[in-house]
Amino acid sequence: MRLNALELTDYRNIRTAYFEPGRELTVVCGENGQGKTNLLEAVWMLTGSKSFRGAKDAELVREGAQFAVVEGDVEAADGESRIRVAIASADSGKRGRTGKKNGVDYGRATNLAGAFTAVVFEPGHLSLVKGSPEGRRKFIDAALCQLYPGYLNVLRRYQRAMTQKNALLKQFERTPDARALLDVFDASMAEAGEEMMRRRAAYLAQLAPKAETMYDEISSGRETLHITYEATCEAGKLLDALHEARRRDIAAGFCTAGPHREDMGMTIDGRDAKSFASQGQKRSTVLSLKLAEAAVACDVLGEHPVMLLDDVLSELDEHRQDYLLSRIAGRQTIVTACDPGLFERTTGRVYRMSSGFLTGV
Ligand SMILES: Nc1ncnc2c1ncn2[C@@H]1O[C@H](COP(=O)(O)OP(=O)(O)OP(=O)(O)O)[C@@H](O)[C@H]1O
Ligand SMILES: [Mg+2]
């Protein structure tokens, strides 16, 4: 997958910009608050998804403007296309994001899914290591949703059964036939839950060795990352596990067992990364996971997504930076950084962002 050119109008602090990233590495440098992340976010909008910073659509429109427009020339294995995403401001009278591909109206931008694929790293993703298990489950589930469109349905079926079961557990003593109802909800949770566990296990079996190898290379073999799937129970045993948890569930008033409580374990040299890893080690871990996510997507979809790396180099020592900038060969990668000196060592194309003005260097 490749982005050949990008045109922006009224996107965040960027009034208008023309961006032509190189075939491999492109660096966008500039001081704090100039619009580097805004540019990366604009590229991401071509995927049809919402902002990776969790911003509302209207916040993406330049203050005082009615619409933001992001237009990209994209090259995929099956040919070239022009993708256009328009984002309405709060007072435009229109709503949200709409998409066009080759001039054809796609309605909501999410319908563009698959036309342009990208993997993004941004500093907020450090919560993948630092934060709660929920963030790690979301990472796995989001990747699975992109790779297997049917997975979203499985998630929804599980969620629906769990919501019903939780409602029942809250008024268990007052509900007639509560136990029979629990059996029904447990059966639905087990059916969808087994499928979730099967997919998650298969995904981690693909992801973990790739991420571990990346980490080994980033740290020049000095440290070992190990990733495990911390499943709620063995495959095929979810219904039993739900039954075993029943007494605890009733006492707690909610479902205490199931794939909604799973986690992805990460250790560096045998120590839990969440509690023991340094800042640079956490960053290296997330980066390894993101590079591995892209590599798995490439295996499944037959095409490597564009890598968008926001502020990825800070906190990495020179060796780790060099590794990162050298392993980019063959895949399009767009990196932002404050320190332009970092990139004197690279052959990448360099842009400078200053107060929303983008210029080639
Ligand atoms: N809708 C908007 N309209 C106008 N300006 C906006 C809008 N949204 C954000 N901005 C401005 O964009 C700037 C931030 O841009 P961005 O986050 O891309 O900075 P950055 O170059 O990545 O900085 P850093 O190095 O600190 O990460 C801020 O000055 C902010 O006020
Ligand atoms: Mg930024």
Short descriptors:
binds magnesium ion, binds adenosine-5'-triphosphate, alpha/beta, six-stranded mixed beta sheet, Rossmann fold, 2 domains, globular, 361 residues
Q: What does this protein structure show overall?
A:
- It is a single chain.
- The protein is α/β, with parallel strands linked by helices and 361 residues long.
- The protein has 10 helices and 15 strands.
- The protein has helices at residues 36-45, 127-130, 133-147, 151-170, 178-218, 238-244, 246-252, 273-276, 279-301, 318-326; strands at 2-11, 14-19, 25-29, 67-76, 79-88, 97-101, 104-108, 118-121, 225-230, 263-268, 271-272, 306-309, 333-337, 349-354, 357-360.
- The protein has a 6-stranded antiparallel sheet, covered by helices on one side.
- Helix 10 links the parallel strand 12 (306-309) and strand 13.
- Helix 5 crosses helix 6 (238-244) and helix 5 (178-218) packs across helix 9 (279-301).
- It is globular and about 70 Å long.
- The structure holds adenosine-5'-triphosphate and magnesium ion.
- Adenosine-5'-triphosphate binds next to helix 1.
CATH topology of the largest domain, what is it called? Rossmann fold
The number of helical segments is 10
Poorly predicted ranges (pLDDT <50, ≥5 residues)? none
CATH class of the largest domain: Alpha Beta
Secondary-structure element string? EEEHEEEEEHHHHEHHEEHHEHEEE
What characteristic shape results from the CA principal axes?
globular
Give the helix/strand class: alpha/beta
Give the bound compounds. Answer: adenosine-5'-triphosphate, magnesium ion
How would you characterize the largest beta sheet? 6 strands, antiparallel
- CA-to-CA gap between the ends? 25 Å
Q: Which architecture of the largest domain would the CATH scheme give at its second level?
A: 3-Layer(aba) Sandwich
| Helix share bin | 25-40%
* Rg, nearest Å: 23 Å
Compute the average pLDDT: 94
